[in-house]
Each structure stands twice: as C-alpha cells, then as structure tokens.
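does this look right to u?? 2'-O-acetyl adenosine-5-diphosphoribose version
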Amino acid sequence: MDPIRRAAEMLRGVHRVVVVTGAGVSAESGVPTFREGQSGIWDRHDVRRLATPEAFRRHPGLVSRWYDERRRDVLLCQPNPAHRALATWEHRLRSAGGQFTVLTQNVDRLHQRAGNGDVVELHGSLHTWRCTVTGRERRDLPLPLPQYPMPSEAGGLYRPGVVWFGEDLPEPAMRRSFQTLAACDAVLSIGTSALVYPAAGFVELAQSRSVVAIEINLEPTPVSELVDISMLGRAGELVPRLVEAIYGAG
Ligand code: OAD
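got this back:
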C-alpha cells in the first residue's frame, strides 16, 4: 500500500495530534532553510555570527537591522499548501472534539497566518521585539524600525524576540511542548533536519509511549529510523495529500 494511504489509516482514529515543524515546511513559501546547499541561510549569511547574544552586545545596530530585514522578508512570503493543509487538519480535528498542536522551530508565523490556532513557537518569533531591561515583548513595533538599534522606553534596547545560539528556549513553550507530547496519540515531524535539540528529541519522547509517528522530509534524518512511516518528498505536496487521504477529498 502506498505510504500516504498507510499513514492516513493509522492517523484516522487519533484525537490528539502534535506536529513538530522546521524550516523545510516554509521552504516552499520562499523562506530559506538553515542547513541546505545554496539556498540555506547559513550559506548566504553567517547566521552563527549574528545569532548570538555576544553579537547583539557588540553590534546591536547590525544585528537589529538584519533581523528587521528578515521580518520584512517573511511578511512578503505566503503560507504554502503544507501550512494550509495543517490548518485544515486542525480545523477538522477540533470540530470533532480533538486537539491539534504545532510545535514549530520556525520564527516566521506562517503557521498562524495559514490558520493554525495552537502554535508553540519554540525559537521565538521575528515579529516580536523584547526590551533588554524589562523583558517586555512588543509585536507592534513599526516596520522598518525607525532606528537600529531601537531604544526601549525603559532605557534599554529592543532585541529580536528569537532564541539565539547559547540561549535557553522560552520556559512556557517548553512546558506546553512536554504537556502536549505526553498526551498525544500521534506525532509528526515535518521539514526538520532533527539535529537541533530539544525539538530533535520530541518524536523519540512521544514514541516512548508508542504513539503513531510519521515523518515527512526531503531526505532521511535521525528520526527516520524511529517513526512508523518516513515519507520522502516535498511537504507542500505530501501534507495536503495526507490530510486529504485522512478525511477524503470533500
Ligand atoms: P534545517 O535547515 O536544519 O532542516 C530543514 C530540513 O527540511 C532538511 O532536512 C531538508 O531536507 C528539509 N526540507 C527542505 N525543503 C523541504 C520541503 N520542501 N519539504 C520537506 N522537507 C524539506 O532546519 P530546521 O530543522 O528547522 O534554530 O533547523 C532547526 C534549527 O536550527 C532552526 O530553528 C535554527 C537552527 O539552529 C535557531 O535559530 C535557534
């Protein structure tokens, strides 16, 4: 049987779904991934140098401008068929009394723009700026920012609301992730290289309770061996086919 139909059969009866997503889900919207050939962000910009607390301390203007440009770039991108199919799935499952949570490593808000209502942003958001003095977060700062770096009312700076190398993930996001993983009936890993922890360990964590586990990715990853079905291909093609196979075309 073809893997989509097999996966759909396994997923049809489940009520609580957790989907772990990475940059591969947004690739077809035009947002670059992190670790791939020519199109990866790391080949075009030295993200490792910019995405650290030290870089912001030393060059706050440069780092703020770079993130503000990424904020502008992702607003010009649109959710793709993978995002939209995940939103449809959430809608269908919730109307039937189920739960559907997206645990995303992406900072682009494309899941929310597609219509997903329960999205945990593990690595923060490009659309949030945080005061370095009070920790207050703002989503309403103008685009582009009027100056780089942007002073905050409390006498500090607004820093990008993303998680940098060497920083802990937001505590509420971690708590929600573990709660949903502990209670789900199915876990999917979509468009992530599954190399960066803690998200890389989420499938294994859920799998310790023998839930249904499915992966969709362009290439095999460390979780491919753990899941029931690993489907290789584009998320923008496979996710809509999977959701359609679960619910039928109508
Ligand atoms: P990566 O760039 O590491 O991996 C993207 C994965 O998506 C790869 O395995 C690709 O094969 C796959 N992929 C690419 N295009 C795809 C498509 N159209 N359909 C399906 N799969 C596709 O991105 P992440 O796993 O998200 O963290 O990286 C995790 C974290 O690493 C990022 O959030 C970032 C980085 O360090 C921080 O910045 C804190």
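The chain has eleven helices and ten strands. idk if thats expected tbh
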